[in-house]
Amino acid sequence: MSNSMLLVKATCLAMIMCMILGLPQTLAALTCLQVDAKLAPCIPYVTGSGGAVPQPCCDGITALNNQAATKNDRQAACKCIEKAAKALPGLNVDALFGLPSKCGVKLPYNLGPSIDCNKIE
After folding, report:
1. CA 35 to CA 85: how far, in whole Å?
2. Are 23 and 67 in contact (CB under 8 A)?
3. CA nearest 68: which of 114, 7, 17, 119?
4. Going by fewer Cβ within 10 Å, which terminus of the chain is more open, N or C?
């Protein structure tokens, strides 16, 4: 796999994770590049090429969830994840939906391609 394709997948996954984590819209301290980097280890799992959720993926989800302290932060991160999810080829929506619970992260909403980031509190 080329480095550019891996970067595209990482970006997509990061956006997906923002949806998952309900992170910021206007990331003051957290950027989409940071979100992408934290969620890149989740790509094999949510594209169906990995059996178990890698620990670095869960660590990234936990870190993003902890860093999204405000409503604006959660909505901004969500938008990053949403953008990444739409661009990620081979996304397994069911795997994405179950990712937070498999990592022991409790979210006040469900993950998926149809989440409205603006409704995240």
Report:
1. 12
2. yes
3. 17
4. N
Task: Find where tokens 């149809």 sit.
Answer: 114
**What is d(CA 63, CA 118) in angstroms, rounded to the nearest whole number?**
22
C-alpha angle 107/23/10, rounded to 5°? 100
25-47: per-residue pLDDT in tens?
A: 444 557 889 888 988 999 999 99
3-state secondary structure of 3: helix
Residue 54 above 90 pLDDT?
Answer: yes
Mean pLDDT value of segment 82-99: 87
| DSSP letter (8 states) at residue 112 | S
Query: Taking a C-beta distance cutoff of 8 angstroms, is the pair 43, 90 a contact?
Result: no
DSSP characters over 15-76? HHHHHHHT-BSS-SS--HHHHHHHHGGGHHHHTT--SS--HHHHHHHHHHHHH--SHHHHHH
CA distance 100 to 86: 19
